[in-house]
Amino acid sequence: MSRRRRRNSDATISLTPMIDIMTVLLAVFMVTTPMLTTGIDLNLPKAGNSALTGNDHAVQISVDKFGKYYVGKTEVAQDEAVRRVVAMRGENPDLTIMINGDAAADYGAVMSIMGKLKAAGFQKVGLRTQLDVD
Where are its TM segments located (predicted)? Predict the structure, then answer.
């Protein structure tokens, strides 16, 4: 009769490496998150008590009071701004775009970029405002 050996297996999982990895990931996200909020200094229009402040994960397109367009902090032409976000959509089909229009910006400049984005197939395009507090 053959004897079978019983294996003595240790079925414990060491949590130390997993905790180390999670700590490093947390530190990386804490450092990089403030860098994601980029843009130029604008005087946003006031919109009552329920302002649309913007999605932190949305692409920010800004229009300053002189009618210049910015993607993040980079000044670009209107058509170049549309081309850039179309290229970004290739990586993320559910891309959200927030348009930050200065209160003194030409209404036509803001609506023009919004129309071109809609024509390019973007469904999630919003206008960012600030709360009107007295």
Answer: 12-36
The model's pLDDT over 57-93, given as tens digits with 9 standing for 90+, comes to: 688 899 998 989 998 888 999 999 999 888 888 887 7
pLDDT at 123 over 90: no
Answer yes or no: are the C-beta atoms of 70 and 39 closer than 8 Å. yes
> Looking at residue 50, what is its pLDDT?
54
pLDDT at residue 28, as a whole number: 83
Please check whether residue 129 is in contact with residue 96, taking contact to mean a CB–CB distance below 8 angstroms. no
**Region of residue 131 (left: phi > 0; alpha: psi -120 to 50; beta: else):** beta
Confirm whether pTM is higher than 0.90: no
* Residue 72 CA neighbour count, 13 Å, CB half: 8
Where are the alpha helices (H) located in 9-54, listed in sequence order?
Answer: 16-36
**Phi, psi (rounded to 5 degrees) for 68:** -85, 145
CB 60 within 8 A of CB 22: no
Alpha-carbon span 76 to 79, nearest angstrom: 8
